[in-house]
Amino acid sequence: MEENKRDINVAEIFGENVFNDTVMQERLPKKIYKELRRTIEEGKELDINTADVIAHEMKEWAIEKGATHYTHWFQPLTGVTAEKHDSFISAPMANGKVLMSFSGKELIKGEPDASSFPSGGLRATFEARGYTAWDPTSPAFVKKDENGCILYVPTAFCSYTGEALDQKTPLLRSMEAINKQALRFLRLFGNTTSKRVKPSVGIEQEYFLVDREKYLKRKDLVFTGRTLFGAMPPKGQELDDHYFGSIRARIAAFMKEVNEELWRLGVTAKTQHNEVAPAQHELAPIFVECNVAVDHNQLIMETLKKVAEKQGLHCLLHEKPFAGVNGSGKHDNWSLTTDDGKNLLDPGKTPHENIQFLLMLLCVLRAVDRHADLLRESAADPGNDQRLGSSEAPPAIISVFLGEQLEDVLEQLVVTGNATHSIKGGKLQTGVKALPGLNKDATDRNRTSPFAFTGNKFEFRMLGSRDSAAAPNIVLNTIVAEALCEACDTLEQAEDFEQALHDLIKSYATEHQKIVFNGNGYSDKWVEEAKRRGLPNLPSMVDAIPALVEEKSVELFEKFHVFTRAELHSRAEIKYEAYAKAINIEARTMIDIASKHIIPAVIRGTKVLADTVNAVVQAGVDAEVPRELLVETSGLLKETKEALGRLEQVTSEAAFKAEGQAQAEYFYKEVVPVMEALRTPVDRLEMIVDKEIWPMPSYGDLIFEV
Ligand code: ADP
Ligand code: MG
Prior knowledge:
The protein is an alpha+beta fold. It is 49% helix and 12% strand. The protein has 3 domains: 10-165, Ubiquitin-like (UB roll) (Roll), CATH 3.10.20; 175-563, Glutamine synthetase/guanido kinase, catalytic domain (Creatine Kinase, Chain A, domain 2); 578-704, Up-down Bundle (Four Helix Bundle (Hemerythrin (Met), subunit A)), CATH 1.20.120.1560.
């Protein structure tokens, strides 16, 4: 029987394009391999001789795979990744031939031209140059396709004076911070063996797929990633028949190729399914350590885009490509794992484990309650402004879902200082008897919570689908490091550990109960209730950015060496600029589409209607219906023209505002409402004019006919 050429052996191809531990162990001399492991595990600096050997082997391996170039792969503050390719060739020899070389120095450090990446003013005050530095904890890999094969070296990107110009540097710093505090925490509970604690992260990625031909006919999608106009089709997502529905052949072929590419890159692509909205899907890998998960998420986004293009599709990663239809996000599943495999968010089975877990849980609650504004900010990007609080998206208010059992435990702790029973299963006495086995079903049913405890991990669901997952993890790692640090400060000094622990648990439970909310996060009642509890509600990115530079944030990040004050201010600047730029592009795209396409098309439509009215009247028949339509269309056309004029005016005025906060606020308060005012009559026009004359594919064409 002929073998199907498309059949693949997953175990065989998995990680085949990665310079992973197995490859390193095979290819590197023992001593060098050991050195590198120490660098990876203990953060020890790598000496140049060791780096030379590693670089040489890495190059040989890459060349065997077909690589011609290498690149330092980094994550500047644009939300996407950047790369600059260098070929391996060195200066020609006397005989006219060249050698392929890659030195330790080239592996460890690169100097891309930093001036075209956002720095938020950092480079105005310091050096203009920047450098990239190898992150040996994230493995190198080759990417190969028809267009070539390139060795990718994951790196961090800094200014010459050491300021972070990227997402990875602060992420690695935050991992260091939480490692240190979590180890202190473990020692207090008698653990003397674990050597390292790392955040484990699994990122679920949602996306839309549309037909590429149709996509190209929508300038708004092409320029901004979302539709700026568009009426809802008669059939929406009311039926929810798409969710977990069977996957159609075209989509299945797409997913197959995506999975294969990702597996070759060592990305643990695991689950795939249809999402709530028509044409919406999700991909989730198995969790790995935080920095690798963030890198892999970038690879996932790139691969989705690339494969879609190859297959005549287009992948929309925008948070809200279609108004009125479910938006896309990422779910950041987060826990803490020791090098010897213990999950610090696992409730455990013994009373001793339970009490350690309870304090851990309360430290996370404390962290989230105190820095809810920072978490909210970390999920802010212009696209997420369209999604948060909208259909099926978590609200812009941060709260924590614990599930019935744990909420009950918390309640008892607050009231009595002891939890003496549980709703389900046996007796519970913190420190005396065991917590009930928390079954996942009992903890995981609230989909409306932005921050949910799901059995042995927290799931932060506010992240935007298009944004890098770095910022939310930086914040999460740092705020939990702070809470652990404070708990350790108290407990390390205590004369009576048991008593101090008991008191601390009770006081944290009491102080932070207000962040716990197990109800429906999508209801208006919750907005009122949250206000009463004093929880921040920051509906827009522009409302959220100031949290970055508040004194309490500066103190937090400086204390744990994650960001300096200057770095935080630069990040706030970059985000204001990003917001202003995004809205500016959207507004200009709307102006373009409305004036060059929609208005002319509708005018043509009114002419047809007017001719019809005349012809009908001439025929001696009542022309009431076409006349009514003509009047309605003309009215909406007038409304459109007026809103267009206003949008042109406010958009050009925005250019004169001082860059930064003032300009971002102007866009948010003055431009965005006029964009909505322009959209309203256009969407109504789309509903009444002849489909033949509408200048672009409709929502129905885009999301039901993939
Ligand atoms: P859902 O029910 O939300 O679809 P799953 O249980 O399928 O969630 O898991 C979603 C993600 O969470 C996956 O990436 C998975 O690997 C990850 N995950 C599972 N356990 C942990 C953990 N202990 N820490 C971090 N991530 C985890
Ligand atoms: Mg999830």
